[in-house]
Design a protein that fits this description.
single chain, mainly alpha, two-stranded antiparallel sheet
């Protein structure tokens, strides 16, 4: 069976605009045309359209998809190269999935915080201008007087340690 671009759109959900764009980039060089230049897609071509869509959804650039399709047309000799291209795309996809799972966990956590805030009515811990947010953020600083007292305590303790070390040193010299 042969399908027009409009019919391909209906069957795949991929817009005519996208299909035409891909065609201008050479993605569908294998698709037959009639005497008026109208493209007609076969059932096998529809499989390629879906495959191209999947590759695009993995983030594969159109130029790489064109290179992949061209390599497929070259035959068995290009199978290792095609496998390598798909391996690379698979690794990128798996990394994207891991990144998205991490983001999903953070979103779940944030949604939980919102649910708690809504349940507590009137507490908005996520609004940087709310009193609750600001009170969580406040850092207590020691007064200059307390800092001076702490410094004096450190100096006094250091002096005592030096005296003990001196007595220990003198005692070990006397017994030797």
């Amino acid at each position: 069976m042969a399908y027009t671009i409009k019919e391909v759109e209906e069957k795949t959900g991929i817009s005519c605009f996208t299909l035409r764009f891909w065609a201008t980039k050479g993605v569908f060089a294998f698709v037959e045309r009639d005497k008026n230049g109208v493209k007609y897609f076969s059932d096998k071509d529809l499989e390629w359209v879906r495959w191209v869509d999947w590759l695009r959804k993995t983030g594969m650039p159109i130029k790489d998809i064109v290179a992949y399709i061209h390599a497929c047309h070259q035959g068995l000799d290009t199978m290792p190269m095609r496998k390598k291209m798909l391996d690379k795309q698979y690794e990128m996809l798996m990394q994207n999935i891991a990144d998205l799972q991490n983001i999903a966990q953070h979103l779940e956590k944030k949604i939980g915080i919102y649910a708690d805030s809504i349940a507590q009515q009137g507490k908005d811990l996520l609004n940087p201008k709310s009193n609750q947010y600001l009170s969580c953020k406040t850092v207590k600083r020691k007064s200059p007087k307390k800092i001076a007292e702490a410094t004096a305590n450190i100096a006094e303790t250091t002096k005592k340690i030096a005296q003990i070390a001196s007595k220990t040193d003198n005692a070990s010299k006397t017994t030797a």
